[in-house]
Backbone:
């Protein structure tokens, strides 16, 4: 009898690992802190280097998760503690209250229409609003609503309204309109304990906060965006329905600049290269060219790292077919024109050795990625950049310092989707060996490479 | 005979053509790169001289873009660093950029590699001082042991000089000239002054030669000669704006206190030089003026000098601003010598007025030894930027044909 495997994080890497394990007949717990699986990839519009639509690749995989009987989803949950050893981990999990009975919820969305409370939508990075009861995104799996207790009028009423209500319960609209009576205002957090053979960490990463880099004025200037924000902007499911519009005047920009290595390869912030930004910027520049007619797209770079399969051809295509300008030089500061809210960038064109300044309507920062580390796992070694340390980066690239715990995706190092997916499959087979009770033979230990 | 004449005409024509070709326009500097010498070991030397992080620079151009000078001058810090990385000695020698830099520290703060471009510029200056000195003698002062030994030897030399010339000392009342004879101090000063002066002129001429030899277009970027009048006009404009008032320094830095301290250091130094010279010239020419005038200038300048040195020593000790973070041994020596020259000179004057004979003589002896050290090492230390910079500015402005910075 195979023991189950826990996968922390249900991004593309976690999904792929879950599917592979399920296919091998292993029970899988797929856990995520968000109410839907999908992770960062769900927020992307297109993928490089083929310009395939990200949702079109991801959604079938997400739907496939639901087909397998041996995959159990633990949505809106967090790991509290991990004890034990390889083959026998005991994991305590805290399931946050959803305030909605997911067995009854059909995802019809009536409650969302009627909810009076609006808050910034974190899926769209605050570019538009969602309701206090929400489904994370339209293609969400499972497509169920949750109530954001912090912003709900009923669960956490603002003090002034509470005073006027004089003890009566406020709002409660969703309960009234719900056709299946799925709303549970008295929902409490639940704790469960799992016994698993192996754990796969697929927690991914977050965009590095560019407000720490004051010279680019992110947060201060309206038309400075991060990669992920731009990605939502061009996405058809995004806040503007796929139109690239500036925050300041809701007009299409005529000149857009991408700035590479914002916070990465920068000794003041992060030492490492974030690996995907060169290609992501190239892709976004192409998307901008496709979305806005006659837009001028410029990428400021120091080195273009197009090392993957078909990546270099993609960059060449961007230059020749789409006419995207690549300028070698780091933008050192950005100033905002007070009236037009256009952005003046200062840089040295290192091919001409000249100080230049140029005005852009929009600036997109290729911000670094920082890993999400599950701090609750004791003894998990990290490397100097804050990623999870690999046992052997050459011959055992998915194992962590703890036997039986594997790491895939951005939690291990900055990488792109193809690399994350291949790691996921690698970790799945390793976890499967443990789950089926086989003695683990680590190639790295016995693998002598002499003749 | 005709044959020889024809040959001469031919050779003259060839020389003329070659000369004309050298002044042809339209050729870029990079074409000149074909025949530059390169010496990769220069990298180690720059690292040793304080440009520790020159190898980690990835040539992004942030330093050029943030540099306040880039607005006025067509210079590129990044390029200067690249020359070092590639070991292009000719280009390093002809590069004026390190002399134009005012160490405002903006590049240090915005460098993504934390390579401290400003410190690399300082290392380049030291390198230039060494290579431009006669027989590369300055390298002694850029080695901790050499610096210490040479300072001790110089001090001992001065001490023995004083002991050798010491007259019948009058200890009942202060009579400086009974301690060190009048002629000795003035003649020694004159000789030292001439040595320093020759060294400085030689260095400036070398800088001129290197700068000129770099550009295939000839000395002037646009190929038009600029007359003596323009040279003089620019020279005096620089003398007033950049040496006396240091407008660009103020503009570059934005830190009023550093500007004031630097200016007071400059005027303290200059004022002391002037007051000493007045004393000497007056005595030489036989005109009698009251000793109080040069002494008054001396006192005021001394206060300025001490203020300026204290500010810089304090900042360099605190190291909390990127531009004051790293101080090279020779810089410390120059700064501390300046400070103690100011202090001992001041105390000497006080003791003279208090009529403390022994104290005066001891302090004065110390003062003379320190001044001797300072003057000998001046052409090989940071002091030289006071002369290199104005001329670098002059050459650069003449090359471009006037730089406007209102």
Residues:
């Amino acid at each position: 009898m195979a023991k189950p495997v826990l996968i922390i994080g249900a991004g593309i890497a976690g999904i792929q690992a879950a599917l592979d394990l399920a296919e091998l007949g292993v029970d899988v717990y797929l856990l995520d802190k968000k109410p839907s699986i999908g992770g960062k990839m769900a927020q992307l519009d297109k993928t490089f280097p083929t310009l395939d639509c990200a949702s079109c690749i991801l959604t079938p995989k997400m739907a496939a998760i639901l087909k397998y009987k041996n995959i159990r989803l633990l949505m809106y949950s967090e790991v509290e503690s991990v004890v034990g050893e390889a083959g026998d981990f005991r994991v305590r999990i805290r399931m946050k209250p959803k305030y909605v009975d997911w067995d009854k919820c059909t995802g019809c969305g009536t409650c969302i229409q009627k909810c009076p409370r609006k808050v910034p939508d974190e899926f769209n990075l605050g570019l538009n609003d969602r309701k206090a009861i929400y489904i994370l995104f339209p293609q969400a799996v499972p497509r169920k609503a949750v109530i954001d207790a912090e912003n709900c009028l009923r669960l956490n009423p603002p003090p002034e309204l509470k005073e006027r209500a004089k003890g009566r319960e406020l709002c409660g609209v969703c309960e009234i309109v719900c056709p299946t009576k799925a709303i549970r205002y008295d929902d409490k957090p639940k704790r469960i304990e799992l016994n698993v053979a192996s754990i796969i960490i697929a927690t991914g990463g977050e965009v590095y906060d560019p407000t720490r880099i004051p010279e680019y004025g992110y947060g201060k200037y309206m038309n400075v965006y991060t990669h992920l924000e731009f990605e939502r902007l061009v996405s058809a499911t995004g806040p503007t329905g796929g139109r690239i519009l500036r925050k300041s005047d809701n007009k299409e920009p005529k000149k857009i600049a991408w700035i590479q290595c914002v916070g990465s390869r920068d000794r003041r912030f992060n030492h490492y290269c974030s690996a995907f930004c060169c290609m992501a910027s190239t892709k976004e520049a192409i998307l901008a060219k496709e979305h806005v007619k006659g837009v001028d797209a410029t990428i400021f770079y120091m080195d273009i790292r197009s090392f993957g399969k078909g990546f270099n051809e993609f960059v060449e295509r961007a230059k020749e077919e789409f006419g995207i300008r690549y300028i070698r030089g780091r933008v050192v500061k950005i100033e905002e024109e007070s009236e037009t809210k256009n952005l003046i960038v200062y840089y040295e064109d290192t091919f001409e050795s000249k100080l230049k300044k140029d005005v852009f309507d929009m600036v997109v920062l290729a911000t670094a990625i920082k890993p999400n580390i599950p701090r609750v796992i004791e003894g998990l070694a990290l490397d100097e950049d804050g990623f999870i340390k690999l046992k052997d980066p050459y011959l055992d690239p998915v194992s962590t310092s703890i036997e039986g715990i594997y790491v895939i995706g951005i939690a291990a190092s900055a990488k792109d989707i193809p690399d994350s997916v291949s790691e996921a499959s690698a970790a799945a087979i390793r976890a499967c060996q443990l789950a089926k009770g086989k003695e683990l033979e680590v190639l790295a230990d016995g693998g002598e490479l002499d003749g | 005979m005709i044959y020889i004449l024809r040959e001469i005409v031919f050779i003259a024509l060839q020389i003329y053509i070659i000369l004309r070709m050298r002044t042809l326009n339209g050729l870029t500097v990079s074409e000149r790169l074909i025949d530059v010498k390169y010496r990769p070991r220069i990298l180690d030397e720059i690292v040793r001289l304080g440009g520790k992080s020159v190898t980690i620079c990835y040539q992004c151009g942030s330093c050029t873009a943030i540099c306040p000078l880039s607005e006025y001058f067509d210079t590129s810090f990044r390029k200067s660093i690249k020359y070092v990385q590639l070991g292009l000695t000719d280009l390093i020698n002809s590069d004026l950029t390190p002399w134009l830099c005012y160490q405002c520290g903006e590049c240090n703060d915005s460098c993504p590699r934390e390579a401290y471009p400003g410190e690399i510029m300082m290392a380049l200056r030291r390198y230039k001082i060494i290579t431009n000195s006669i027989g590369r003698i300055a390298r002694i002062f850029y080695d901790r042991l050499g610096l210490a030994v040479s300072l001790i030897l110089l001090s001992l030399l001065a001490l023995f000089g004083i002991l050798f010339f010491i007259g019948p000392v009058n200890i009942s009342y202060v009579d400086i000239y009974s301690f060190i004879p009048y002629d000795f101090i003035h003649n020694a000063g004159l000789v030292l002054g001439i040595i320093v002066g020759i060294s400085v002129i030689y260095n400036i001429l070398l800088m001129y030669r290197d700068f000129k030899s770099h550009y295939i277009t000839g000395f002037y970027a646009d190929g038009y000669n600029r007359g003596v009048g323009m040279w003089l006009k620019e020279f005096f404009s620089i003398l007033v704006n950049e040496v006396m008032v240091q407008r660009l320094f103020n503009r570059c830095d934005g830190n009023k206190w550093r500007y004031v301290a630097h200016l007071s250091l400059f005027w303290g130094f200059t004022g002391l030089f002037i007051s000493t010279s007045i004393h000497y010239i007056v005595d030489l020419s036989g005109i009698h003026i009251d000793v109080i005038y040069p002494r008054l200038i001396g006192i005021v300048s001394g206060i300025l000098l001490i203020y300026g040195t204290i500010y810089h020593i304090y900042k360099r000790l605190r190291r909390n601003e990127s531009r004051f973070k790293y101080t090279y041994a020779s810089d410390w020596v120059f700064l501390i010598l300046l400070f103690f020259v100011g202090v001992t000179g001041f105390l000497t004057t006080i003791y003279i007025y208090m009529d403390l004979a022994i104290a005066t003589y001891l302090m004065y002896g110390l003062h003379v030894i320190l001044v001797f050290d300072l003057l000998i090492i001046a052409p090989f230390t940071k002091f030289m930027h006071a002369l290199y910079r104005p001329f670098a500015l002059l050459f650069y402005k003449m090359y471009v044909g006037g730089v406007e910075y209102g």
In short: Chain B touches chain A through 19 residues (CB under 8 Å).
